[in-house]
């Protein structure tokens, strides 16, 4: 049997790199396209090493998706069985300050990709969407049928891309598209060799906690401790990044079903965990005390958001295996081995 070849955009990023590794281990060939805007080529090299004898099935191109000529060249030289599309900017706060940057990068990059895919008769796509498309849901758990709304430009790009995908499928029914709505990816590969390495100040809870634990930041700011939750802090659905990566493998396999059109699946654990519960689990895993600073609620933050995962379990035959203890254990393993991420030392003190 000839190995299938999957193009992975944004494959040097946090979720992308873990997914590329799982693809290789599952016997696929992976071609990574990434502009390295918020990622590191070191991640690609480490994935190749972790994949051992399957590492030869990985190739990398430093290309921006908006560079249509470069993308055309890649498609002209390789026949792809499917595309997993991660590439995009993803900081909510930045998107509010720089909406045009987000629309230009995320929308034009995706449209260019879809045009090139169509021109080369590659019509199988797994798209990395987000639970942000639910806005602030009025009830939980979130099912795939919930009404959709975007609360910020980042979320709007995800929603618009979902709509583009639905419209393409309506126009041309030979497309097969799976939209995966992630909840809150955390953790790292158990080797500690690949993990999340955000540039600048982290936007998400766990990279921030990790930076406090290794001494890069003095304390964690908790936004809002007066919610109607178990301990007053916001509740989210945290999912181990390796479980999330495995969800993509399940989705790529599902694209072979004759009856797939344009389908959407939540990827989460179906359980909510509060900010303080997550911090306590990380303290236990790391043996480090995380100093906290309590602050007011952030405008627009929801109280409780978690997924209904029944559809993914039923149709993708996929279910998250790991709990918060494993997430924190693997996150700490990555952080303690790579306190400054993929750079071996802090940028400012290279002497």
UniProtKB/TrEMBL annotation:
Gene3D superfamilies per UniProt: NAD(P)-binding Rossmann-like Domain, UDP-galactose 4-epimerase, domain 1
Catalytic activity: UDP-alpha-D-glucose = UDP-alpha-D-galactose
EC number: 5.1.3.-
GO biological process: galactose metabolic process
Pathway assigned in UniProt: Carbohydrate metabolism; galactose metabolism
Gene Ontology CC: cytosol
InterPro entries listed in its UniProt record: NAD(P)-bd_dom (IPR016040), NAD(P)-bd_dom_sf (IPR036291), UDP_G4E (IPR005886)
Cofactor requirement: NAD(+)
Record's keyword terms, sorted: Carbohydrate metabolism, Galactose metabolism, Isomerase, NAD
NAD(P)-binding domain segment(s): 7-330
Xref: PANTHER family: UDP-GLUCOSE 4-EPIMERASE
The family this protein is said to belong to: Belongs to the NAD(P)-dependent epimerase/dehydratase family.
Protein name per Swiss-Prot or TrEMBL: UDP-glucose 4-epimerase
Organism: Senna tora
Lineage: Eukaryota, Viridiplantae, Streptophyta, Embryophyta, Tracheophyta
